[in-house]
Design goal:
The chain has 128 residues and is mostly helical. The protein has a domain of 89 residues. It contains four helices and two strands; from the N terminus they run ααααββ. The protein has a two-stranded antiparallel ribbon. The chain is flat. The N and C termini lie far apart (51 Å).
Length: 128
């Protein structure tokens, strides 16, 4: 009786290779010029529009708890994120010539307005 092991092995390997290429296709590689433009635009936007973190956090906390806690907690969390986003904006403008990945997520305050702002590692180089 002949086994189907080689056929199943080839099928498994080809499936894994196609899956890995699909995952890589989801993460576009950013050129140096695109990285500099992204940092300049996000730095300017984060510096000037970071004040939107306060109403954003009031909405998020109000949706998670109630309006009273939303006002109190949202103002505090929004103030912290306002300072963080302003600092990241200044840092992005100063270090625009360095091709690094974003520090703040979501990149702009208006992106995914129902998601809390998180901060990642600083100065991770862009994959080229």
């Amino acid at each position: 009786m002949k086994t189907k092991t080689p056929f199943l092995f080839v099928l498994l390997i080809s499936g894994l290779l196609s899956l890995s290429s699909a995952v890589q296709a989801q993460q576009p590689i950013e050129s140096y010029g695109d990285s500099v433009n992204r940092k300049l635009s996000s730095g300017l936007a984060n510096l000037t529009l970071s004040v939107l973190e306060v109403p954003k956090n009031i909405i998020i906390v109000s949706n998670q708890t109630n309006v009273l806690f939303g006002l109190a907690g949202g103002i505090v969390l929004g103030g912290v994120d306002l300072l963080g986003r302003t600092g990241v904006g200044i840092l992005d403008l100063v270090t625009a010539p360095l091709a690094t990945q974003p520090i703040v997520f979501p990149l702009y305050v208006w992106d995914d307005f129902n998601k809390s702002t998180v901060y990642g590692p600083i100065f991770r180089p862009v994959q080229q």
